[in-house]
Amino acid sequence: MNNYFFEITLDYIDIKEILEKKFHVEYGATVFFLGKVRNFNSNKKVVGINYDMCDELVLLKFYNICKHYCDLYKNIRIYISHFKGYLKIGFISIVIIVESLNRKNSFIICNMILEDIKNNLPIWKYEHYFFDDSNWLNGKTLN
Amino acid sequence: MFLVMNLIHGEMFYYMINNIIIKIKLYGIYKKYNIEYIFLSVPFDCNIKSLKQILLKELFSINESIFIDEVLNCSIFANNDNILNDDYIILNKEEIFLFPPVNGG
User: Fold this and answer.
1) Out of B76, B97, B104, closest to residue A121 by CB
2) Average pLDDT, stretch A120-135?
3) DSSP string covering B82-96
4) Would the CB atoms of B97 and A119 count as touching at under 8 Å?
């Protein structure tokens, strides 16, 4: 059985639904990361963000990330869900959950997965502002 | 007239055997062009480095008011499996992706 789950979702991510999932009693430390749409960026009032991504490569990279950390750390479980489409402020764009035997590994792995996703996955943000304009956000060249 | 037609057909034939068709899928800031794909005819030995020059002209011809030079320099091309480096020779009818700088999460 795989120790990981990942998805691109077009449905809003519901934190209550995630919290109701049965977590595994053999893991003592469960770390959550939730990414939300912020109401301000670059001195502009934000009303929402469109998330664009290359689905094929994002799913391939999710698989590689999960496989890499599960091989490296053995006794862990990973859950990743990333939203695609338009989100209003306050809504959740990404959830990462890492379960492991101790908290140290859970925090470290969760942080590394997040950095990987931010820097190495073909995902883009199109920010919409209160005064009608909108903008594709600057980013980092993939390598 | 016959000579002219022959010359035209000759050029077209030369063009057809020396060029390939590729399909480029656009993402992120390239959506400003309001198109999902660009189809390009490029020389059969075209690599990624040369493709950037051809694509820049094509994008300019689609909308000359968008200044995309800097973004294109920082963009990468990929296929279903890998990021393609500058020396990669593109295959006939290959579909490739054009990725501007990323910022997910």
Assistant:
1) B104
2) 92
3) -EEPTTPBPPTT-EE
4) no
